[in-house]
Amino acid sequence: NMKHILAMQVLANALLMLNYWLLDAFSGATIALIAIAQTVIMFIVRLLENKMSEKTNTIITIIITTVFAVIFIVSAIKTYKAPIDILSALASMAFCFCIVQKNASVCRIFALANSSLWIGYDMGTFAWTTILTHGFSFASASALIGIIRLDFARKIKRPPLTTNNKNIIQNKADRCVVKS
Q1: Could you give the angle at the alpha carbon of 29 between the alpha carbons of 82 and 110, nearest 5°?
Q2: Fewer CB near the last or first residue (10 Å), C or N of the chain?
Q3: Max Cα–Cα distance, the chain, nearest Å
Q4: What is the distance between the alpha carbons of residues 99 and 115, in angstroms, rounded to a whole number?
Q5: HSE on the CB side for 1, CA within 13 Å?
Q6: Dist. CA 38–CA 31, nearest whole Å
Q7: Can you tell me the distance from the alpha carbon of 62 to that of 77, in angstroms, rounded to the nearest whole number?
Q8: What does the alpha-carbon distance between residue 147 and residue 162 come to, in Å, rounded to a whole number?
């Protein structure tokens, strides 16, 4: 149910925000707070998607993505304390572009980049508990498995099954039959 997914995303970002805030990692805390708003707004847009034309939906998605990208950049500039804060800004940008992708391969790459950047930020801010959520999360594992299984597997070309190949396969199968 999308309502449950939304609630869990909001809860997860709220806990991440609290964790980063307690560690004085204000860049991450601010981005987690903004991500809550982004999640809710994108969820509402997805609910209304069927009532809009594709062109209108695309325009709205581009506007929302651009607005949130600017908000993430401004928040990163305002909360900047150390070079590690750049990772949180890059991670938020990867997420912005991930959630608007229609191509699943591209979405998986952005999702993996997002998780990897957050892991780097977590290590730099000593946010060890959040490494568990970013490093071993379902999204990270799912993105990595999808990239390996779906994207790389499609690039491997299998030879077409010709009549000659069928005969070879049949002969090998005949030799494996145990006769009593």
Answers
A1: 85
A2: C
A3: 81
A4: 14
A5: 4
A6: 10
A7: 22
A8: 30
Task: Measure the CA–CA gap between 112 and 130, rounded to whole angstroms.
Answer: 16
- Tokens, residue 165: 């190949």
Coil/strand/helix, residue 53: coil
CB 167 within 8 A of CB 53: no
- Among 40, 36, 7, 35, which residue's Cα sits nearest to residue 92? 35
Q: Please state the length of the chain.
A: 180
* Residue 86 to residue 125: CA distance in whole angstroms: 12
pTM above 0.85, yes or no: no
The two three-digit tokens of residue 74, written as one number: 């401004």
- Provide the b/e sequence for 110-149 (b: ≥16 CB within 10 Å): bbbbbbbbbbbbbebbebeebbebbeeeebbeebeebbee
CA of 153: how far to CAs of 41, 109, 121, 157, in Å?
Answer: 35, 15, 31, 8
User: Are 65 and 101 a contacting pair, CB within 8 Å?
Assistant: no
